[in-house]
Structures are given as C-alpha cells and as structure tokens.
Sequence to fold (281 residues):
Amino acid sequence: MTVDAARRDWRGRLFTLLIVLVVSVLAALWLFPFVWAVVVSFKDPSEIVTDIWALPDRLIWDNYASAFDGLNYVRSLGNSLFVATSAALLQCVTGTLAAYAFARIVFPGREILFTLFLATLMIPTTVTLTANFLILQNFGWIDTYAALIVPQAASGFAIFLLRQFFLTIPNELQDAARMDGAGHLRFLWHVVVPLSRPALTTVFVFIFITNYNEFLWPLIMTSSEDMRVIQIALSTYTATEGITDFGPFMAAAVLTLLPTVILFAFLQRAFVRGITRTGIK
Fold:
C-alpha cells in the first residue's frame, strides 16, 4: 500500500469514527427524555425531590396503578387503537385505489387533479376545523366514532407516497397481465398490492401514529368519558392530579407511549424498506 493510499484509508476511518460519534451523541440526547421518564415513573415522590437524577432505590409500581386507574386506561386506549387502526386501514384502501389511478390510468386532467391533491397537504388542519365540525354536526355524528374516523379516511400524503411507489413497478408486468386478460382491479390486487407491502406498511404506520397522537380533533368532537381517547385522558388526568407528583404523571406518559413503541418494533423492517425502497427485485 502506497503512502497516499494509506493516508486516504486513515482519513476515511477517521471520518467514519467522527460520524459514529456525532450520531451516537445525537441518539443519546434524543433518547434521554424517554429513559428519564421511565426511571422517574418508578420513583417515590420523596426520591424525585431529593435526587431527581438518581436511580430509584426500589421500584414503585403504585405509580403505574394510579396512572392506570386515573387514565381509565383500558377504555381510552381501546378507543385510540380502534380509531387509529380504522383510519390507517381506510387510508391504505383509499390511497391504494387513488394512487393506482394516478400512476397507471391515463385520463384527462390527471396531473392537475394530482396537483390539487398535493395542495391539500399545504393546508393547515385548523383552517378546515370549523367547516368539518359544522358538517359532522349536521350529520349528527358528534361524540361518535364516525366523527373521529371518517374525516381521516383519505389523505394526500397516502396517495402521494403510494403513487410514487407504484410508478417504480415495471410496465412489463402490466402488459403481461393484460395479455392474460387481467383488468385494472385484478392487476392491482394480484400484482401491485403484493409488491407494495413495504409502502403500505409505511403508510399504515405513519397514519396510525398520527391519529393515535391526535389531540385537537378528538377534543372538539367528543365530550363523554366513554369516547375519550388516550391523549385526552392523559390531559384530563394531569389537569386533575396536577404535575407536582411526577411519578404517576410519568407513568401515565409511559403507558400512553407504549403502544406506538410496540407497533414500530414489530413493523420496523417493513417500515424502513418502504421508506428506502425505490424499485422491485
């Protein structure tokens, strides 16, 4: 190995080490609030006051019992999971159909219509909040699951992401399917959907987490305790109990965060593939 080659190799290793160090520091800074919340959720109130950074002397499970009861956890979590899952599945269905039309079917005004769909992504949700509320009020849907799910049944984001993925599917596959007598729906169901599972998983995860974390819309559209989602329950719990006792408060935050962490842990590989993949094998 020449001197120049050895120098380039040394510089490359040094640059890689520097990148790893920077990423590690950023990851530690990002993870610290979550780790701290978990640690505090197991601490006695006296320990939090005397030394908030130390590990707990013993695990106080009563913090979780208090938060579990105060949140009405089973009911509120069930509402959130049902709403978020329903909205995500509906967007996968409507997004798939619309994205296929924009990617594979030629019709007049297709590009203009697609641009209008993309333009909806630029409109803040607060702008349409009053109009949507009045419409659903006239339908008699206030304080119902329909009010939480139906307005989230379609979005420009899902259509855009799936359309970009569908465009990477070779036209030869569609030509072969057409020669076998397959129409658009058959080709979509038997060829496009199986090839698009990573993209569909990505859409599902994004939409699920967005709806699971939604606060303003459920706050406006629901009023009864039976319809309360987990984010509203967390807000109500902290407003009632206050945040002076950080143990139960952090336990409630951890319980609220847990479902999304579990979901991402199971779907991580498919999620990353859907983000990075630009073609098919």
The two ends are 38 Å apart (CA to CA).
